[in-house]
Amino acid sequence: MNKARQLNEIHSKWFKDCVCELQKTATQPVPGVGNPEARIVFIGEAPGKDEDEQGQPFVGRAGKFLNEMLTSIGMKREDVYITNTVKYRPPNNRDPLPEEKSACYHWLADELNCIQPKLIVTLGRHALSNFVPEARISDVHGKVLKKRGHLHLADGNSIVLSTEYFFPLYHPAAAMYNGDLRKVIIEDFKKIPEILKNYAASREV
Ligand code: URA
Question: Is residue 205 scored above 50 in pLDDT?
Fold first, then answer.
């Protein structure tokens, strides 16, 4: 089965089976979108108001900023895969709780293990903490981290991922209206093509 069909099946399954409590208040789930063959996956925190309304990740103001940065490195949304840690909007955009993240990790892990990206770009400290809980974003943004990917579940188990390279960025929503952070994220973003060339040239693991 090709990856596009596999991803559709993954989304259909988790539309039914996801046990995240946030579905009680969200309008709809927001699955990842993009190229199933992408070598790079961007992971945010959680859908906001626009995403909750439209059912697609990063379609609001932060998403427009993300699109601009993709354009600046000669990429389009269709070249990459974009998803979130949790698939439902938290009420009033509060931080997702550990158990909400854990409930959505199965969906995220299925997306990642289907696509098997060479590079995972984490957007913001929440997305970073999924994979590298000990790291501080102010120390590691704009640096490639090599680590076997794991998602740690609330019950103490973890899901192993095939991806080994992580590239943490500040969250576009946090950076877009903050002059200093905006410069930092734009500069960090420009490193992506070189990183893909150096660390993620082939699809073989
Ligand atoms: N912020 C996120 O983390 N994800 C979105 O989809 C939109 C804003």
Answer: no
Q: CA-CA distances (angstroms) from residue 144 to 8, 93, 168?
A: 30, 29, 7
| Amino acid occupying residue 184 | V
Within a domain: 20: no
How many angstroms does the Cα of residue 26 sit away from the middle of ligand 1? 14
2: three-class secondary structure by DSSP = coil
Domain that holds residue 113: 3-13+30-202
The CA 154 to ligand 1 mean position distance, Å, reads 23
Render 81-110 in DSSP notation, one character per residue: EEEESSSSPPGGGPPPPHHHHHHHHHHHHH
Q: Which residues line ligand 1 (CB under 6 A)?
A: 44-48, 51, 57-58, 60, 62-63, 84, 173
CATH number for position 70: 3.40.470.10
Does the predicted TM-score (pTM) go above 0.85? yes
With respect to residue 95, please indicate whether it lies within any of the assigned structural domains: yes
Instruction: Provide the number of structural domains found in the chain.
Output: 1
Q: Which two tokens stand for residue 95?
A: 């931080």
Phi then psi for residue 118, to 5 deg, are -75, -30
Question: Across the chain, what does the average pLDDT equal?
Answer: 95
